[in-house]
Amino acid sequence: MTTKENTLTLRNAKWDDVQAVAKLMYAVSEADGDASVAETPEDIEHNWQSPGYNPETDSFVVETEDKQIVGYWEMFNGRNIAQLELDGYVHPNYKDTPVAEMLIKRAEERAMQAVPLVPPDERVYIRSAMPIKDEFFRALHEKFGYTAVRYFWRMEINLTEAPTLAPLLEGLEFRPFIKEEHAQAVWMADNEAFRDHWGSHDSEYEEWSHRKFEIPDYDPTLWLVVWDGDEIAGFSQNRYLNDTGWVGTLGVRRNWRKKGLGLALLTHSFAEFYKRGTQTIGLGVDAASPTGATRLYQKAGMSVANEYVAYEKELRAGKTDHKQQTID
Fold this sequence. Notes:
There is one protein chain. By secondary structure, this protein is of the alpha+beta class. The protein folds into 2 domains: 3-118, Aminopeptidase (3-Layer(aba) Sandwich), CATH 3.40.630.30; 156-307, Gcn5-related N-acetyltransferase (GNAT) (Aminopeptidase, 3-Layer(aba) Sandwich), CATH 3.40.630. 29% of the residues lie in helices and 31% in strands. A 13-stranded mixed beta sheet has the order 1-2-3-4-5-6-13-7-12-11-10-9-8. Strand 9 (224-228) and strand 10 form a beta hairpin. The model is unreliable at 322-328 (pLDDT under 50).
C-alpha cells in the first residue's frame, strides 16, 4: 500500500532500502548525541533476517520525491506476539512534517493485525523506547495514547589503565566458550538469569542463537563463561558495538548471586577489551533492575552516558505477568 501526503510517499520497506535506512539511523542517532549506537547496514540486514520477521510487511519508510528516505518504522513480534516492539526514526529536518504521524499510524495498523492471533484472554500491547531527551518522539507517543512505563540507562567506562580484576570464589572458573559444546547450556542459563527482570520472557533457541551468533561482529573469544563444576554459574556475552566494547548480556544464575560473580565477570570483560586496545566499554541496563545491576556497574566505575524511556500502549486488555507494571 502506498500513501502520499504532499511530496511524501509512505510505503513498505524493501531489501534495497538497507543502505538508506542505515544512513537515516546514523543521522538521527548523531542528532541525538549518541551516534555510537547507530546500526550498520550489516546490523539491519541481520535484524531483518530474524525468525518471524518480514521487513516487507513489518517495516515502513517515508521517502521524498527525489527518493530520499526520511522516515523509517519497524514492528517486531515478541513474547508470542502479545508484545509488539516498535522502533522509529525521522530525519531531523523532517520533524515538522507529517512523516512521524504517517509512520506511527501505519505501524499501529500492522500491530492491530496481530491481535486476533493472540489467545483471547491475554493482554496485547505495543512497546516503544527512545532517548529520554527526545521530546519530539515522547510527545508523539503521548499524543497517540502511549504511557511511559520504564527507564533504561546506557552506561560507560573509559579506561585509562588496565582494570583491577575481581576474584572468583574458590571452585568457580572461567573456561573458553565453545559454541558447539556450550551454546545450549548458555541459552538455558540466559533464560533463567533474566526471569526476574521486567518484561522478560524465555526465548526459543532459534531466536536466541540468531540474535547471538549470526550478528556481523560475533566473536566467541569475547564471551566469558564461569563454571561451577558442570554447571554454568554466570556469563558475559560481549561484542563490539561500532568502536565501543559492548557487554551485551551479563547474567548470574540465582544460586550464585551475591557472591561477587557479577563484578568478576564485569571486570574481566573490561580487561579483555582493554587488552585489545579498547578503552571505552558500555552496556544497557534497566534503571530499576531488581538484581541491583546498576549499583554493581557503578561500583565498577561505570556512569550513565544516556537514558532511555519505554512507552506502552494497550491494544487489548487481558492477563499479563507481574513484571508488566507501570511506573508511579
